[in-house]
Structures are given as C-alpha cells and as structure tokens.
Amino acid sequence: MTTRRDFLSRSAMTAAGLGAAAMSQPSQAQLAESVKQMQPPKKPVIITRDTGDRTIDEAYKMLLDGADTLDACDHVCLAREDDPNDHSVGYGGLPNEDGVVELDACCMHGPTRMAGSVGALPNIRHACLVSRLVMERTGHIMLVGQGAERFAVMEGLKREDMLSDEARKMWLLWKEDRNSHNFWGPPLSSPQWKEPSPPPTLNHSAIPRHPGPEWAEVIRARSQQLMGMASDLGIPPHERAFAVEQVLWPTTGTIHISVLNTKGEMSGATTTSGQAWKIPGRLGDSPIIGAGCYTDQDVGSAGATGSGEENIKVAGAHTIVDCMRQGMTPKEAGLEALRRIVRNYNGDMNKVRYLDMIYYILRKDGAYAGVSLWSTTASGKPKVFCVHDGEKRVENCAWLLQGTTTN
C-alpha cells in the first residue's frame, strides 16, 4: 500500500521529471489548442458503471438511431432507479437515519449547455427525470426537498413509497443496532477526528472495512449478533449476510453516465439515493453541477461515484474537464483530481484509506478513462468501469493508490 512518504516522493519525482522534459514537450497553449481542433469520433461512445443489464446496449442503439444524448443517459439511469435490488439508486435505495429515501440527481445537456439538478428528493422514484424537468421547465438549476417533490408532482410524476420492504428491514436492523456507524461527530478532515480502534466490548461506532487481525473477534461477535437480530426482524436467511454487511459497511454507490455521439454532441447524468443512514437533508456530490457531473461538449464530460463530500471539495468533474481543456488526457485529468483529494489530507494515508472514488471520463474525440483512488474493491478485484463504442466491455480503472479503501 502507498504510504504518505511514497506519495510525496512520487509527486516530487514526477514534478522534476516534467520540468526536465518541458523543453521537448508541447506548451500548455499548444495542448489546449489541440483540444479545440479535435473532431468527434466515427462511432458513439458511452462511459458508465457496469449495470449488469441490457440498458447500455439499448442506449447505444438509441444513439445510432439518432436519439438525443441526454435521452440515452436517462434510459440507463431510469432502469437503475427502477431496480429494487440496486440499493444505491432510486426505489429500494437505502434511506437516511429516519427511514426516508432521499434521492439526488443532476444532468447536463451539451448541445444547449443547459443543466438541472434535484436534491434530497422524497417520494418520487425517478430523480433523473425531475432534474431534467428542472432544466427544461424552470429558470432554476436546482430544487431540493419538499419543494422539489411538489414540483415533480405538478409536472405529472406520482408520489410513492420509495422504501422497499428489503431496504426497510435493513434500516430497522441498523436502527436496532445501537453500535451502528452514523454521521454525527467530527468529520474525517477535522483535527478532532480519531481513528476507530478495537474496543474491549462491542460498544463502538464503526468497524473498518478491511480491519487487521485485532478486529477479528469483534467482527465475528458483531456479525453473529446482527444475524440473530436479522432473523428476529424476519429477514430471509439468504438476505441476512447482505443486510449485516450494509449495517457494518453501508452502500455508497451511485451511477454516472457520459455520452457522446458522432456529431460531437455530449450529455452527462448522475443519480443516487446517497449515503445510507445519512443525516436527513444531506446532499452529496451527485446533485452538484461540477462535482458529481460536468459536461462541456467543446471538451468532454465527467462524473463520479464514491466519497461525495471529498469530491465536492475538489469540484471533481469540473476539475477533470478543465484539465482536459488544458491538454491533459482523460486518464491524466482524472488522476490529477484524485491527487487533489489526497493533497487535502497532506498525503496522510491513515485518513486517505477511509476514502473511495471512481471518475468516469469522456473527451470530445471519444478518448475515455475510468480512474479510481484505490486499485481494488473490497473483495480484492480490480476497480472497473464500462465502455461502449460499438462493443460493450468492462475495463480496469487506472488507479492512483495501490490497495483498497478501509471503510
């Protein structure tokens, strides 16, 4: 695993190497001009998370048939919002600490340079459609909370209970477990934050996702305790292990999609149910234009999944697009945004290892990248993203730090 010393040393050597090679490389102005001169690809390109369904293929066919790029984005997002088994998006998403599912979404339409966003949206399934309605039907960019809900209903969307029975039981399990992690107290960036350590009893707030052997007995006892509680709550046997995992290490997923057609038109969209068990009213990066999503069809499009608060602080998607504007490749731009996240903690790996981030990046000429803060998932598999440019495939992310997140 990369240490703070390794990170700082590598950064210094990189800077030195860039300085030595500066005389033989194009100037920043030349690189920026080359971006302006780039031509659209001969085939459409889609960059997103691996959804495990056919919607990416269907969206690609829509592009081949001449559909608007934002329609293609929404096609993929709508399916995720409809899937009760995707507990990070839409119906079935894990709720806030009060048991209310609050959705966030945003979209940007390259051809018109319009944007829309919705945050902390209750009782409406398709947050991606509400963000688009905000874009198309109002003079605002963002609506939140009950105001966003009322707007959605006025525009014809129906109220419904967004808490699926499976998600409700997981929330009850989290609620009944008095030792569950919550978001009260000093944040990771605070000098008052203290790293959790194995307690002598089960009375503690959080277990690292990849703890050392000193945590083994604590995890075994906690898991056994939670499995018994899950049984009492009527959670089916085949769902209990997953429910326990969500209590100990809650889902933080999202979906972002960036799309480019052969006319050079781009759109991007992001949708999520946000951080599980969050404080009511919390907004992550997904509804923030420039953080969870940013599209400029003169340059490119980018979006993110992961530690939302950290992405807001570096304006991740905008940073990436702006770096590409200055001549960086998609991979270089994504890694630069990740370096800024690490820099915010002065390379302190005791804190950085609690963060996670994946950026999905698409340039106006069809060049693309998926980049991740850490190289592997919790199970040790490489971080991946999905690309479709006539052939749908899953590729490994480029990564900044080797290893995996702790929490």
From TrEMBL:
Which residues does the annotation list for site: Cleavage? G253, T254
Task: Recall the GO molecular function terms of this protein's record.
Answer: hydrolase activity, acting on carbon-nitrogen (but not peptide) bonds, in linear amides
One Pfam family from the UniProt entry? Answer: Asparaginase_2
**Signal peptide from the UniProt entry:** 1-29
* This protein's GO CC annotations: cytoplasm
Q: Where are the active-site residues found?
A: T254 (nucleophile)
Record-listed substrate binding positions: R282, L283, G284, D285, T305, G306, S307, G308
Which InterPro entries does the UniProt entry name for this protein? Ntn_hydrolases_N, Peptidase_T2, TAT_signal, TAT_signal_bac_arc
Keyword list (alphabetical) reads: Signal
| Keyword Electron transport belongs to the record | no
The record's PANTHER family line, in alphabetical order, gives: L-ASPARAGINASE, N(4)-(BETA-N-ACETYLGLUCOSAMINYL)-L-ASPARAGINASE
Q: What is this protein called?
A: N(4)-(Beta-N-acetylglucosaminyl)-L-asparaginase
Record organism: Alloacidobacterium dinghuense
